[in-house]
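Thread: Diacylglycerol lipase-beta, structure

OP (GT): Posting the sequence first so everyone is looking at the same thing. Length is 672 residues per the record. Can we get the structure tokens written out before standup tomorrow? I want them in the notebook alongside the other entries.
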Amino acid sequence: MPGMVLFGRRWAIASDDLVFPGFFELFLRVLWWIGILTLYVMHRGKLDCAGGVLLSSYLIVLIVLLAVVICTVLAIVCVSMKGTICNPGPRKSMSKLLYLRLALFLPEMVWASLGAAWVADGVTCDRTVVNGIIATVIVSWIIIAATVFTIIIVFDPLGGEMAPYTSAGPDHLDSHESSQLLNGLKTAATSVWETRIKLLCCCVGKDDHTRIAFSSTAELFSTYFSDTDLVPSDIAVGLALLHQQQDNISSSQEPQEVISHSPGHPQEAELDAELENCRHYMQFAAAAYGWPLYIYRNPFTGLCKIGGDCCRSRTTEYELVGGNQLNCHFGSILHTTGLQYRDFIHISFHDKVYELPFLVALDHRKESVVVAVRGTMSLQDILTDLSAESESLHLDTDLQDCLAHKGISQASRYVYRQLVDDGILSQAFSIAPEYRLVVVGHSLGAGVAALLAIMLRSSYPQVRAYTFSPPRGLLSKSLHEYSKGFIVSLVLGKDVIPRLSVTSLKDLKKRILRVIAQCNKPKYKILLQGCWYELFGGSPDNFPTELDGDDQGHLTQPLLGEQSLLTHWSPAYSFSSDSPLDSPTKYPPLYPPGRIIHLEEEGASGRFGCCSAAQYRARWAHEAEFSRILIGPKMLTDHMPDILMRALDSVVANRAACLSCPGQGISNVDVA
């Protein structure tokens, strides 16, 4: 950090990123050099054949060339280990070493080509020598190809536009020129991100919704990253340091007093009832994922159970529409929910941007019409997730500022039109008019379920929604408060999605900047210690949790780029409110839906929850507890629906068992 400037452009790699690649190349080069030297010393007497002089010269020059390359790579590694992340001064000679290293590729390519030509001419020398030459030529071209691939990976399309500024600095520009240059770079960044997203999602389609999603996602990424000179390894270092900082603070705090009510207490009775409802309706949210999740949850028996359904056609009196492999999906849905095929009103696996699969079923056990919406399972769903602007919801209420996540709002409107305009709900309630409406979903499906319940509440006042691991950036404050009367959300452990919003991402970026700014260790040491800590645990490093007053000013200095335009005028460093991410109209603060039940982990467990039991306790939580992203190995695994289902089953079973032990209160829960 900052990104290196070579050949007049900025690259997405820092001068302290070359330690591990350098060591790897050094290892290969030394082995290669020893092998070639051994081959030459042991077989030089056998080079008196036709063409032997050329091969002898080839090996000698190659030995010398490899020695020069080894010395150069060793120097690059040594220089890359110097300084700290925010102090690249000791590494100022890195660019000259890299120019030298790249220049050495020219004789390497020439020599590899000559070796290939000589071998192709059919040299009649000792076969061992010839095989050694062939291996040398192959290794040479592999390394050259790997280098070209690496150059492509670290190429920054915006590097050329930043280079003139980088060399001159910001002081020669007046405010008008700087504003023009900043806007130009942001426009270029948006275009670059849109091109990248289109390449990654080339198979998604080209309809209007997809084009809008491409633009929204590109603008989000360009806005988030345009005011930093972060390279990928800086983000990895920041996350590793934040995790240790977070654990260090947690271990130093006094344990929170847990208020435990007796099982007969009204608050505990309500929690028990809602947990039981969550466990029941989570089956429907999981069923909406279809056969992929079922096979994942049942890797040994799942295929055998639903394999017959994939090949067998079912006809029902109800309409089953959309999607490929519907029968495979239908078989997994039947096994997951335990319902009969005649209990389903509508199943759709139609999947496009802003258009999600969902199912409608009659749940006779709970006397409810259940609408279950699938979570993220495709590139189209990811684009829906990333359309993170806010848009207004037009509701039949007196609420003010009814804003919601744009992509999820669009998906909710699609499902609403299917349910209401196409008469699906009318059909369901014509069969079971006394049933109540329940909307459920997990992840993205949870967000859609929450908005769908809000939209349907005027027509179905008794509607309830159970949202599992919903995204935080979903509802405006007024809608969040309104939804508490009929929506219950369930969050497991450190799950990142219920803590994820544009606001929390901006906060995460500021925390990364702070923790990097106050770190005085070289990057390679932080990465090594971070990998060890993530895999095996241990004691987190001690370092300040906030910058001192004198250090706060340095956030506007060379934190993530000593001469970077986007750093000197970065809102993220100056903590001003000029950032587009702070826009009150486009990215206002958004909140999770409904009341929140948190399955909170207690005690120590395996790093990834697979080596030892995790203990959880269920409690009502406030949304403010999920305003900050927590870093840890389980931040992703806690979001998986199968892990959530296991934890929920165990919590409910344990609390039910405690009803017969009133003197013990509510105890911890072991989750395998």
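GT: Both are above now. Quick notes for whoever picks this up: The first helix runs from residue 19 to 43. The two ends are 42 Å apart (CA to CA).
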